[in-house]
Amino acid sequence: MDYLVLGGNLSATFYGGHPYAEQTSQQPLNPQYTTSFTRRLSLNYVIGRAAWTSSTRFGYNQNFFERIDKIWKTTDPNKPESFPGQRRLPVIAFSGMSTFNRENRLQGPIPSFSFEQQFSMFRGRHGFKFGGIYSMPRGGRPDTTATLVTFQTIQDVQRNEPAAVSAESKEYPFTWRMINFGFFAQDDWRVHPKLVLNLGVRYDSYGPYVATGWKGDFGRALKSYNMKPEILKNLVGKLPMAVYNLDGLLDSNNFLWGSQRDPNSPYNRDNLSIAPRFGFAYTADSRGNFVVRGGFGVNFQSYDALGGAAPPPYESRGAFTRAEAAAAGLKYPAYGEDVTAVIIAQNPNKKPQITARLNPNLRPPYAMNYTLGIQRALTSTMVLETGFVGTRGVKFDLVRPFNNIDRITGLRPNPNDITGTYRDNSQQTNYNSWQSTLRQRLSRRLLFNVHHTWGKALSYTGGDISTGSIGDTRTSVEDFDQVKIERGLSTGDVAHYFAFDWVYSTPTPFANSTVGRYVLGGWQISGIWRASTGPAIGDRFGITQTGGRPDLLDINGAVNKNCCSFGNLQFLNPSAFQLVEVSRASNRTVRRGTSNLSPVRGPGYWNVDLSLGKSFSLAEKKDLELKADMQNALNHTQYSTVSTNMSGVDFGRVVATRSARVVQLQLRLTF
Fold first, then answer.
1. C-alpha distances in angstroms, 233 versus 42, 75, 76, 109, 219?
2. Which helix (H) or strand (E) segment is 203 a member of?
3. Measured torsion, CA atoms of residues 468, 471, 476, 481, in degrees rounded to the nearest 10
4. Mean confidence (pLDDT) of the chain
5. Which end of the chain is more exposed for a tag (fewer CB within 10 A), N or C?
6. Rounded to an integer, what distance in angstroms lies between the CA atom of residue 166 and that of residue 319?
7. Pairwise CA distance, residues 573 & 558, whole Å
8. Mind listing the pLDDT tens digit for each residue in 91-107?
């Protein structure tokens, strides 16, 4: 909706949706059920005068979803659970067997808010712009996961002697919030009729991620747990949640740590994120057909807001080794409450056992972006743009295991502490590319664009800034002090990407006929053809086996070049890899395998999307629009996911495809 108010334009936009999905592609016997809703509200007020313009925006955003794996709903038939999700059926992990997902995860129970203000003004050769933003991202992430009991051999299964028992961290209902604000100023300065400079700077302040236990009625936050109302009522105020952290890693060899920090300040706030930017555009000829552009800029990013929270740290633990599980009497089925009871009994002094630890001096990650290219008019309607585009990521989040058990002995460097994950700013990323675009403006009823990107992205753990359990981050660091050896292709990296999009307006046959003009003429046919080489292969863990990674014996023969087609889905050649021996004491490989995180690329793909549409004039200011869209119009099979666990029976096989043809019809009346 748009209104004229006090000489300015006030607009309001609301968007809402309630999608539901059931996904069974990778685990047909254990589908994931996802229920969600989205609510977004944007209020914008723009007012302008001869030499200045003001833009004000208020935003409201809530994205809720709950994702449940079917097996998570199976509970202990003999004993009801006293805490949410803590007597769910434990899952068995065994070499060569796919492990079921077993999680109930909820996200976004409360909305986020933001407020922005910008001003623009012109003075002589200068175009100034300045403003600020205040944002309050908020949310919550209750998350419970059934226990995982790992067996190394069939004899272990027969004796019920686990090689490891996980102690999944419970995330009871909680909310979190951050308070961020920033300011910017920039100047578009026309130094010369042929030269324009863009100079700017931005300041940002990012508040810490603070989590608190859910207060009041649990409502939707525990609805799927199907617990009795009287039990839920008794739990109010008894499920403390916070971001617990220790005050720094003091000794990375023996894994000695500082004391526990205040949960309201899990890490130190950073108040000095200053990002400069510089750009230029130079017209190299007198007719304006040849322009050189370039620039450099720094962009900061807020702390990752999905780091999660945990119950009191004396209830946490990463996992029990074979010896620890045997000493504690943990066997299958070891329910979550049973494991928690053992942890509490072994920690009578309530010593902090925090599984997810942060560097208390975390800094906001930032990217340095740089570009240099040209724009050249080839004809009056055709333009070529080509240039170098690069990004270097600095102080990106990196997650790695601390105090990990020794490969041979199964003992920890610090026997008085647990094993968990440590997050700091150690990750560096690098992306370099050459990007080209050929644009044809509408001429003779046809317009089109052709795009090509040739590039490479490298990083240590996938190149994302997330905490490791979500997004593109890979939890791939095997040894705490060997990070740089993990450097490889980033998640989703492709060497070549092509795209060709076009719009064609059909001529009107039988122009003298009313029916001909009205029915047959004025149709628009548009489409997009995309093709790409394969992305870097490997999921969050890369190419793996039980306890680590295998050896890569033949890099040139690792990929079956005749793949893929119906009945021919073996993409990786198993003979090019070799399993590394696994230690019985640690359930880890006795040494690092020679295969890195992403040694090869997956299957390439191509796809065509088509659209057909026409607008019919019914009366003055009344039009009827008809449109038909076809995604994957040729119904071409596009192979995607490759099984990368060499200990599995389907190693190297393609196990998923992209979507088949989807047809959508749209009829729209405008008045």
1. 37, 21, 22, 19, 11
2. strand 195-206
3. -50
4. 88
5. N
6. 4
7. 5
8. 998 877 778 888 888 88
Q: Which among 47, 408, 356 is positioned nearest to 209, based on CA atoms?
A: 356
- pLDDT tens digits, 401-424: 999 999 999 999 999 898 888 999
Residue 325, H or E segment: helix 322-328
CA 391 to the chain's CA centroid: 18
Tell me the residue type at 356. A
Residue 647: Cβ within 10 Å count: 16
**In a 10 Å sphere around its CB, with 0-12 CB exposed, 13-18 middle and 19+ buried, how is residue 636 labelled?**
middle
DSSP helix/strand/coil, 163: coil
pLDDT tens for each residue of 252-265 = 999 999 999 998 88
3-state secondary structure labels for all residues of 353-392 = CCCEEECCCCCCCEEEEEEEEEEEECCCCEEEEEEEEEEE
Q: Are 47 and 119 in contact (CB under 8 A)?
A: no
- Three-class DSSP category at 336: helix
For the stretch 167-212, pLDDT in tens is 876 778 888 889 999 999 999 999 999 999 999 999 999 988 888 8
Do 409 and 586 meet the contact criterion of CB atoms below 8 Å apart? yes
Q: Determine the Cα–Cα distance for residues 289 and 400; give it in Å rounded to an integer.
A: 52
What pTM was computed for the model? 0.85
For residue 656, give both structure tokens.
């998923």
Using DSSP's 3-state secondary structure scheme, residue 357 falls into strand
Count CB atoms within 10 A of the CB of residue 599.
22
Is residue 111 a contact partner of residue 37, using CB atoms and an 8 Å limit?
no
523 SS3 class: coil
In DSSP notation, 77-105 reads SSS--SSTTTTBPPEEEETTSPPPP-EEE
Q: How far is residue 86's CA from residue 94's CA, in Å, rounded to a whole number?
A: 22
